[in-house]
């Protein structure tokens, strides 16, 4: 009995194991099938996506190629039209220039025939005459200015010398005046002494000194008069810068004034 039960239990256990194995196998097959379906679906989706992307890329490339070809054709057409326009303009300008040159040549020829040649000769003579006259005037002005400049230098030299002489005279006059004042003071002092002197010898001595002072005073006054005469004569001589009329040279009268560099123009 126990053996039978054991056998039954073993058989039942084996059946359970077989059932479990079958269920596991079925589950495994189901999972494998689902995984295969998933992979197939993903592969189909990937292929569809790649196909769509390839078609889109090919379409974009086709459109870009067509656009580039169209732009190239349009650019070539524009260049052709521009070249044709430039060529037409150049030909037109060349024709206009040629026509203008022809008309200018005709006008010059007509003017040359209508205008006598002796007018050109007279014009040339006038131009040469004006040039020579201008040069002569310029040369004359240059020489005159140089002469005036030298005269001014000489006059300045004379004025400087005269100023130095006047300064020396004024200094000498000042010294003479100081000496005169000193002599007068000494003379006044002697006259005061004569009023109070009692001794005849002393009186004669003072009179002799007074006479000597009178002689010195007279000599001093004489020197002052001479120096003042020189000073007065110098003021008259300083008029050398006044205008002097020169003799006419070549029919032109020149009034020369060293103080006015434009005098005589």
UniProtKB/TrEMBL annotation:
Residues 239-249 have a biased composition (Basic and acidic residues). Residues 23-75, 217-265 are annotated as: Disordered. Keywords: Membrane, Transmembrane, Transmembrane helix. The chain crosses the membrane at residues 118-138. It comes from the Bacteria. This is Apoptotic chromatin condensation inducer in the nucleus. It comes from Nannocystis exedens.
